[in-house]
Amino acid sequence: MTTDDTFEGACTCRAVRYRMESRPMFVHCCHCRWCQRETGTAFALNALIESERVSLIAGEPERVDTPSNSGKGQVIWRCPTCRIALWSNYGGRGDFIRFVRVGTLVDPDRLPPDVHIFTSTKQPWVVLPAGARSFSEYYDSKQEWPADSLERRAAVFARLAT
Ligand SMILES: [Zn+2]
Ligand SMILES: [Zn+2]
Hints:
Largest sheet: 7 strands, mixed
Oligomer: single chain
Low-confidence stretches: none
Radius of gyration: 15 Å
Strand content: 25-35%
Helix content: 10-25%
Bound molecules: zinc ion
């Protein structure tokens, strides 16, 4: 069941289907060269959410270890059949926060970006909406995230530390 605060998604062959059980903490539109290469297009659109809030409805994505800009690696989770990427974990800390690829949602229009990042390498034809929050490289999440999202993330890190 989809409600105003849940979001269903799937790979292209629909072997893997999932549901985000709440709104994400934050949505990144990343214009870095790594995201451009990994998506084959101009940017990546990622919804950041606690892993425990993502339920599998069908299938099981497969882990693919991938280099990352930070050097800490990225784990991309892909459909084992059609190989579409559904989400990633960054930072080498395990599967605690998922960067869900918004384009795999049934209705991706529901999650526009909260910030545009790495706009120093934005492809020049991509014109951001007036008033969009944008950063030439990374950004200070404590400044940009809503308080309840910062609390959610702090709860994840507190669990990690124990
Ligand atoms: Zn698939
Ligand atoms: Zn990026």
